[in-house]
């Protein structure tokens, strides 16, 4: 379909254990299918540290065992197409970091460890074409992926983006 | 048949301008990062496990063989490699997605 970018300019993650509700506006985003059959590919993840002191930050891209309900953007969060000519989908994928029912990270389906020091650190992961992480549908266990901070360290101020493509 | 390197993604962890993260701290998080990944500039190829979609960071210092599935012609994570040896069954994630979508469509039809 069309690639899109979910970004958040600046926020401080809250270190949260697995299978515990993430707190609004303290994680990068979830990516959830817009319908029961929609598939979404995650192509790229970027994190840039903005902290003013040493902040080992343990970020995890993971599937969720509780999916978010009624998702919206937090302050500084945006979702935009990469191509200006992109047409709107009838069922857009859900992205954002505020929800009425907050997502919970799976304890057994961590997909990628993106830990870094938010005091000036940078992390970027890009998938090879055809090797993207995908979600399917909008229910657990495959319908949602989140990027959030795991317990430990001292999570620090950061900005981030996720490039994804609903299919 | 193409090289398996065509499946490789890219990971950059750049802590050159930061104090970095010690190996001891990195190892408290699973999946683990290779030793030294939290210091200085770390670049590595990655593979997405064909059977579970976990991203495996290819440690350049690893000497053990990587798990490989000849049926789907992809590298696997170590956990899926063990399952493949024990069961001999290739169940790629693409098949899991197809089954999930078919189930969702049938559910919608029946509902």
Question: What do you see in this structure?
Answer:
The complex is a heterodimer of chains A (167) and B (111). Chain A has one domain (4-166). The N and C termini of chain A lie close together (5 Å). Chain A is built from no helices and 15 strands. The mean pLDDT of chain A is 95. Helix content of chain A is 0%, strand content 51%. In chain A, the strands form 4 sheets. In chain A, strands 1, 3, 7, 12, 13 and 15 form a 6-stranded antiparallel β-sheet that branches. In chain A, strands 8-2-14-5-10 form a 5-stranded antiparallel β-sheet, with no helix packed on it. In chain A, strands 4-11 form a two-stranded antiparallel sheet. Chain A has strands at 4-11, 29-32, 39-49, 56-57, 59-66, 69-72, 77-81, 94-96, 98-101, 104-113, 116-117, 122-126, 133-136, 144-149, 158-166. Chain A has 167 residues and is an all-beta fold. Chain B has one domain (6-110). Helix content of chain B is 29%, strand content 21%. Chain B has helices at 23-26, 78-87, 93-110, and strands at 9-15, 40-48, 55-57, 68-69, 74-75. Chain B has a 3-stranded antiparallel β-sheet with strand order 1-2-3, with no helix packed on it. In chain B, strand 2 and strand 3 form a beta hairpin. Classes of the chains: A mainly beta (167), B alpha+beta (111). Chains A and B meet through strand 10, strand 11, strand 12 and strand 13 of A and strand 1, strand 2 and helix 3 of B.
């Amino acid at each position: 379909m069309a690639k899109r970018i979910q970004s958040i300019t600046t926020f401080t993650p809250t270190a949260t254990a697995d299978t515990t509700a993430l707190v609004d506006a303290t994680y990068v985003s979830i990516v959830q299918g817009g319908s029961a059959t929609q598939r979404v590919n995650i192509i790229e993840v970027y994190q840039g540290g903005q902290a003013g002191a040493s902040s080992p930050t343990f970020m995890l891209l993971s599937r969720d065992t509780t999916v978010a309900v009624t998702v919206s953007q937090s302050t500084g969060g945006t979702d935009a197409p990469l191509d200006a000519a992109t047409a709107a989908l009838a069922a857009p994928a859900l992205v954002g970091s505020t929800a009425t029912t907050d997502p919970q990270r799976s304890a057994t389906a961590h997909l990628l460890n993106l830990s870094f020091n938010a005091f000036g650190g940078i992390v970027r992961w890009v998938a090879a074409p055809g090797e993207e992480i995908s979600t399917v549908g909008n229910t657990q266990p495959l319908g949602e992926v989140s990027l959030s901070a795991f317990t430990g360290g001292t999570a620090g101020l950061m900005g981030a983006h996720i490039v994804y493509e609903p299919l | 048949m193409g090289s398996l390197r065509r499946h490789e993604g890219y990971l950059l962890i750049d802590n050159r301008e930061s104090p970095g993260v010690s190996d001891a701290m990195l190892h408290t998080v699973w999946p683990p990062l290779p030793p030294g990944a939290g210091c200085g500039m770390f670049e590595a190829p990655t593979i997405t496990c064909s059977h579970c979609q976990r991203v495996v960071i290819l440690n350049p210092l690893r000497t053990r063989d990587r798990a490989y599935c000849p049926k789907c012609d992809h590298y696997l994570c170590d956990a899926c490699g063990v399952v493949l040896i024990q069961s001999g069954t290739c169940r790629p994630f693409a098949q899991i997605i197809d089954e999930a979508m078919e189930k969702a469509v049938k559910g919608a039809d029946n509902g």
